[in-house]
Amino acid sequence: GSLIEQLTTEKYECMVCCEVVRIVAPVWSCQNCYHVFHLNCIKKWARSPASQAEDGNSGWRCPACQNASAQVPKIYTCFCGKVHNPEWNRNEIPHSCGELCGKKRQCLDCPHLCNILCHPGPCPSCPAFVTKTCECGQTSHSVRCGQSTKIHCSNVCGNTLNCGKHSCTQVCHAGECSPCQLTVQQVCYCGSNFKEVLCGTKEEFSDGFGSFSCQNICGKKLNCGRHNCTQVCHPQPCQLCPRLPQVVYRCPCGQTPLSKLLELGCVERKICTDPIPSCGKTCGKPLSCGSYEFIHRCESLCHEGDCKPCSHTSNIYCRCGFKKKVIMTGFGVFILFLIAAITFMCDKRCNKKRSCGRHKCNEVCCVDMEHKCSLVCGRKLNCGLHRCEEPCHRGSCQTCWQTSFDELTCYCGESVIYPPVPCGTQPPECKKTCTRPHDCDHPVYHSCHSEEKCPPCTYLTQKWCMGKHELRSNIPCHLTDISCGLRCNQVLKCGMHKCKRICHKGECLIDEECKQPCIIPRLYCNHPCMAPCHPSSPCPATSCCAKPQMNYNTLFFSLFFFSRIAAISIATKLTDLQLGDSVEISRLITKKEMKQARLQCDEECLALQRNRRLAEALEIDDNSDPFNIRSSGPKYSDLLKEDARKDLKFVSDIEKEMRTLVEAVNKGKHTKKSHCYPPMNRDHRRIIHELAQVYGIESVSYDNEPKRNVVITAVK
Fold it and tell me: Where would I find the PHD-type domain in this sequence (predicted)?
């Protein structure tokens, strides 16, 4: 009734598109939950990856009840499915054919079809009356056909139980009767053990010798009356004695018939206790310790009874085949040999990549061929909020399947994205002006945004610099620390100096002391103290390091006066100069003038005079070079000269490259340049190292043979 009312008044919404279902729109109804959808919407949903069933083979899922369907609906039908593309009639239910429904009801045991007009939703229960019997079948009642309740009477069931001997003692009940709970005693086939079982079970039946096997040795006397049965408790009669003369036809090893041994003089056997004649050959029976490839055989002479333990050894391999182990197979250790062969594992860890390509296998004694990765991927999905929960895999992760059914809006609420909203979807773009609270009162020029912080305010204002030197104009509002570029010039804590830093923020010296030179004049020379600033202590008693400076006017006058006198004297000797004679200027100036124009001797002059006197005392010629100080030619070793004679082109090319590298470093801006030679043999590399030592260049060899090469580096 609710579905009919909503479809008639066009208030029913499709769960896929969230739009109203019109009375003339083609629809599809789920036969499990009876939700109604637009036909086109359900087609798109069925083809989308999100609708696929979890196992991937069951088709697509209903958006409402998740019931899997194999076929995608293609035709618009009425609710009962008899009419295609039903026409809308004002007097009938929308999307119905107006005829009887005729669908089978949900009740399984109801044979009547639905007898109301074509309708949405489930069919109502059947109104017909039928006669039903109780569960035990002793009484009957008249009830509605659609009634699903079972009828029970108060009588005892009385049906025969599964054993076929006893009857059910329960009150009228649903379903089959419970198995018989009485117990019976059974005996094993050999008659040595007993047990109790439920009546009617398979274990209760006997074949005449017993009912079950106790898995012990039978132990019954054989037909010979001298030996006991060595078989495990068995249902059939015991076999004949295996040592009877009429049963044994060959020697113990089985190689020679007894008839042949009788011809050779052996005593004929009369009863089973007589010994079986031996042929004297090697036994040769296969032992249990051997394998399919190498069968170990008994090396004793033909004998009765069990063979002696094997004296051979066998090789067992670990399951990956990397290691081998030698083990003794004799002394009744065959079972231990099999256990060792199964459990023997080496300690080698597998270094192969797993199927994901990210992790190593690291399995000890690995025999896996696929190396599937059992770890969880755990990488972030494209939404940035959830992580991949699939097993570790290659390639990119799938898109996030999480979906929100809440509306996604911008900050101001003007732009909206309606559900379903895939996880990771960004808020919609809004062109309205931002309505968030701002720190300043200037006009807002940026649009509504989803980021928490607004863009900085770019309104142009006037602001003071950090040192309060000047008021600067056209400064964006968001800028706070502005420097005017002038010197700070604030008085420091010492009270003597001013800050020399460019206009800055905060105090000039926070945890430091003033280190500018003291400017207090000395007592004797009036030069400044120049020691690090010491406001609370007197100037230290140190020698003055200031150099005397000549007045520029005095120096210019002296040079001018000297040049004037020299010019007059040279003019008088012009004739001698034209003839090629020389003129000595020192004679043109008086000793008084020379004394006035002479500069005072400094420390460099004193050092030159001292060296000159020392050279005269040691009789050292000024033109000699005893310590090769002035020699600039390169010193080549004899071996390098011999190499140059053998391969002059190679040595010349190497020297040319080194010279070019040194010139490029000296003329360029870089302080270091390198050059890499191609791989070469040991002798050529030795030549490069020796030439690099001559040119003062670093040389280093890299890589291993046969790709070992030399890299040279020149430093300015």
Answer: 11-68
Candidates 679, 649, 675; CA nearest to 661 is 675
Q: Which pLDDT score, from 0 to 100, does residue 448 have?
A: 93
Neighbouring residues of 430: CB distance < 8 A, sequence distance ≥ 6: 410, 411, 412, 414, 415, 447, 448, 449
**What pLDDT digit, counting tens, does each position of 324-346 carry?**
877 766 544 455 555 655 677 88
CB 71 within 8 A of CB 62: no
* CATH architecture of the domain formed by 638-715: 2-Layer Sandwich (3.30)
Q: In this structure, are residues 385 and 423 in contact, taking their beta carbons and an 8 Å threshold? A: yes
Residues 168-178 have pLDDT tens digits of 888 888 778 88
Residue 420: asked if its preceding bond is cis (omega within 30°), the reply is yes
For 573-590, letters b (16+ CB in 10 Å) and e give: eeeeeeeeeeeeeeebbe
Q: pLDDT at position 459, please?
A: 92
What distances in angstroms separate CA 342 from CA 294, 321, 336, 339, one per listed residue?
18, 12, 10, 5
- Cβ proximity of 240 and 223 under 8 Å: yes
Q: How far apart are CA 437 and CA 468, in angstroms?
A: 30
Q: How many CA atoms, within 13 angstroms, populate the side-chain half-sphere of residue 461? A: 16
The predicted pLDDT at position 432 comes to 92
Side chain identity at residue 483, one-letter code: S
Helix axes 638-646, 682-695, angle to 10 degrees: 130
Residue 575 pLDDT exceeds 60: no
Return the minimum-mean-pLDDT range out of 290-299, 394-403, 581-590, 615-624: 581-590
Q: List residues bridging with 433 in a β-sheet.
A: 447
- Give me the DSSP letters along 648-706: HHHHHHHHHHHHHHHHHHHHSS-SEEEEEPPP--HHHHHHHHHHHHHHT-EEEEES-TT
Find residue 461's DSSP bridge partners: 475
d(CA 314, CA 309): 14
Q: Poorest-confidence range of 294-303, 591-600, 604-613?
A: 591-600
Number of C-beta neighbours around residue 290 at 10 A:
16
Are residues 494 and 482 in contact, defined by beta-carbon separation less than 8 angstroms?
A: no
| pLDDT higher at 503 or 315 | 503
Contact 219, 228 (CB under 8 A): yes
Domain ranges of the chain: 1-124, 311-344, 638-715
**Residue 454: predicted pLDDT:** 92
